[in-house]
């Protein structure tokens, strides 16, 4: 899977579609974030999810990145589900598919569920 060359909104939507996700055409959130210098247990678990995708946020500590959130329209649960992308200099460096529900889930892009301190058993 190619994670670089992601510069436009169309690139981001196409990237997510490669994993089978259909999202609304425009992001519902676009913000600048900084990857923390020290990972707490929740962020460390989130980075473990990224590692299953061949990514590692530790390489980007203290870096400013773009966070985009899209509403997923084809999740089988039918609930409110989001696709999150973290992008640094035109490259996807992290992200997830996650439920907005209180006891929801966090998936990798391929739909594999990963248990983190914030997900229920």
Could you give a short description of this structure?
The protein is of the alpha+beta class. It is built from two helices and five strands; from the N terminus they run αβαββββ.
Description:
Helix content is 17%, strand content 28%. The protein is of the alpha+beta class and 121 residues long. It has one domain. The protein has a five-stranded antiparallel beta sheet with strand order 1-2-3-4-5. The longest helix is centred in the middle third of the chain and has 12 residues. The N and C termini lie far apart (30 Å).
Secondary structure layout plus pairing:
Blueprint: H1 9-17, E1 29-34, H2 41-52, E2 64-72, E3 81-88, E4 91-99, E5 106-107
Antiparallel strand pairs: 1-2, 2-3, 3-4, 4-5
Features:
121 residues; alpha+beta; five-stranded antiparallel sheet; 17% helix; 5 strands
Q: Kindly name the structural category.
A: alpha+beta
| Strand/helix succession | HEHEEEE
Radius of gyration of CA atoms, rounded to a whole number: 14 Å
| Low-confidence residue ranges | 116-121
Report the principal-axis shape.
globular
Percent strand: 25-35%
Helix content: 10-25%
Helical segment count: 2
- Annotation, overall tally of beta strands: 5
- Count up the domains: 1
Mean pLDDT across every amino acid position:
91
Distance between the termini: 30 Å
Please summarize the sheet with the most strands.
5 strands, antiparallel
Strand order of the largest sheet: 1-2-3-4-5
């Amino acid at each position: 899977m190619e994670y670089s060359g992601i510069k436009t909104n169309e690139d981001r939507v196409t990237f997510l579609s490669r994993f089978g996700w259909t999202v609304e055409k425009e992001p519902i959130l676009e913000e600048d974030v900084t990857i923390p210098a020290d990972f707490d247990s929740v962020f460390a678990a989130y980075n473990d999810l990224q590692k299953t995708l061949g990514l590692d946020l530790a390489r980007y500590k203290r870096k400013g990145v773009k966070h985009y959130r899209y509403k997923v329209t084809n999740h089988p649960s039918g609930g409110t589900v989001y696709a999150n992308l973290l992008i640094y200099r035109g490259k996807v460096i992290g992200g997830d598919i996650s439920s907005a529900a209180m006891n929801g889930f966090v998936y990798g892009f391929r739909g594999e569920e990963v248990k983190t301190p914030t997900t229920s058993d």
